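Q: Got a minute? One more chain.
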Amino acid sequence: MNSDRNFTIVHAEVVTPRGIIHDGAVQVEKGIITYVGSAAGAPSDSANSSKIIDAKGSYVLPGFIDVHVHGGMLEDFSVPSQEGFDAITKLHCSQGTTSMLATSMTMPKEVIDEILEQINTYIHNDMPYAQLVGVHLEGPFISPKWPGSQNPVHIVPPNREWVEAWETQYPGLIKQVTFAPEREGAHELIRYLRKKGIVAAAGHTDATYEEIMAAAEVGLHHAVHMFNAMTPLHHRKPGTAGALLSNPALSAEIIADGIHVHKAGIQLLASVKTDHNLILITDAMSAAGLGNGEYMLGDLPVVVKDNVCTLKENEATLAGSTLTMIRGFRHLVQEIGLSVERASEAASLNPAKLIRIDQHTGSIETGKQADLLLVDPDLNLQDVWVKGRLFQN
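A: Always. Here it is, folded:
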């Protein structure tokens, strides 16, 4: 990363929470945004006078925030190492992700203990690439009926005591927990998560419509990888999918890769999730950034062919993705038909709000850290800044 954190981007299409500023400018000083407005009105600060970046009509977007990502470049957060974290965060930073949640798999408790310890250590050092802002525990409290690519051997019922012990040892580290809300102990866990400000998320669940609604009453408010590993929508049995679609209080993630969910499914979800509750994720696994071949997801072998990831022992089961946030962003705009502003919201502001980091990132506003992307009119990524530092491979 470049140590130069003072610059001004001019003649840009600046995507802000209040709309696009045409022929706009963004000024950054010491990694903090100090001006957002028209290029004509940008302050002429001597500290920035030699550091003008002419965007030539390209978009300036807030950096992407991926709350559901398992790995990349052969590395997996569930096989933790400091070098592995560098490889994962470097890859995803190169693809526009400036903040992310290290997402674990359904693993034995002692492995999760190690994951949390290693990530806590990494976060408290200087992170050179995309910033790990916490942990997303995807399991082990999921449904044995919907394990997806999770190892069913390690599934256990929701356990508040485990989460409470982890939160006590690493305060604020866990930002999201995914579990099956119909299982015994789930409501007790939800109440604890909501008390601590941790995202209570439904996923890998056999819940009925009524069970999701009952869980929402006690604090469930989010769902992972919508339509995948959950009871589907039926006109007489709305299931988990029907509950999520019909309840505006529940936000939902979407893997926008053209593989996990049909175009019509994403369009339907986007049509009902219009209040900061549509969230783009990658669910990327260790094969991200690489090609066809055999890889691991947690402790299960996976085969990748033409960007489709499936369990080796059951190729009918999708196993994460090789998606990156810039590709997902383009898919939302170019294939699904969302506006650049709406897709940016799903990729940045909405996840920032979900995990409560929107006070300092997730949108282009004065006083926020300069997590920025320069994207050309065809939505190809040109430059990435994290806290005002230019990413350089």
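A: The longest strand covers residues 19-29.
Q: Perfect, thanks.
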